Amino acid sequence: MNIILVVFDSLRKDCIGVYGKPLWGEVKTPNLDRFASESLLFTNAYPESLPTLPSRRAIYTGKRVFPFHNANFRLKGDFVSTAGWGPIPEQDDTLSEILSANGYRTGLISSLYHQFKPSKNYWRGFDQWTFVRGKEWDPYKSGPEPSEEEINYYLPEEIGIPGRVEFIKKVIRNIRSLKNEEDYPVAQVMSKSVKWLEENRDAEKFFLMIESFDPHEPWNVPPNYREMYDTSTKREQIISGYFSADNLPGDLLKRTQANYSGLVTMCDRWFGHLYESMGKMGLLDNTAIVVTSDHGHSMGDKNFVGKTGYPSAPNVYDIPLLIRHPSGFGTGKTSGLMVQHHDLFPLLLGFSGAEYDLKAKGIEGRDFWGNVLNNDTSFRDHATVGWGPCITVIDENWWFNCLANGKGPLLYNRKKDAGMEKNVAAENRDVVDRLFSIALKDAKDGIPGYLKEQADRAEIIPGCSPIAAKASQI
Fold it and tell me: DSSP class of residue 84?
């Protein structure tokens, strides 16, 4: 069968209507909701590692990136980011390379500029790759210099520190040319994806990877999308400051949430264009379509705007996963199977029928479609997620988060405290030790020294328990 994998960056699970609604109210996603009604919806899906590039590496290779061995990157042409922020290792096969070797025509349409920076190689194995320019720090436009009036419009004085001024200048240069909705990145990504499908109708079978950096910040949208959610202020706020929501007056927090909601709805509208076009081309009968996200984003949740690995929370770690199989299996149903990003690699290879020795190649992801077909829930009993020197372990009952040295533990009872309001680590030291040991087991060769050093230097956040997880492997 043909295969399409769509990844939206920073798309919160609760902002897709079928999954519920976020704390600030319903987000309109009629096309994704319709797609969900024709798909199998997963309620227990998580990243393998975070943020943007480590999560892609796990998706593209089927291998764990956590605990970030040989991943302390310092590469020219990019800023030094968190552990794992680098290229795909040369020795790892990518999904596109394997499918191409097995007779698939492969394409990548992406607005995720991190994939295309100097030293990055995420387009390996694609017969065609298309880079849609202009998001965030992408060096797309170099001039003219933004005026003070432009800067003041997009950057409220309450958060106008120098670093953000430079960021908003780059954003302004990149978005000046957006005159019509069709010019915006997500519209371009989906339109070019449809064009790729039209131009490759002769392919016996194809794999199309669609990467939309939207709804990642900056949340710049046409006014009609924003006005669906807020008309209360003329002031603008489109960036994520990674700060306390107290830094934003109420009208600007509402505007921030409205811009994000508007961008999600815009992503939905253009996904609808892709989906409807596939129907008109007769591709829905022979194409598996998978829709997911790399992570979410806090939009005032627990008074924070941004995303973090410590503390970790469902609004960032709990991701949507929708799979539409051309056989119709799973249509309109829900699965609570616990799956992670690196499981998508063997899943899609299973869909393709490609010959590839997963075990011999060290693939740690697992194909879960057989579990779904047989209603077998014995798949994963936990998810371990790494983000730099921060570790999260999630199982049926608990959400555990700490630094890589075991310090600063946070433990929440998922069944009794769905909102994760009370840290009960001190009262459940046995659970803390058990979950930390699980994380270290998943780390295989142990936590690398540079991450332990980062953990030792990290600030222990308020509200954590004054204990440290114990494990013989530390």
Answer: T
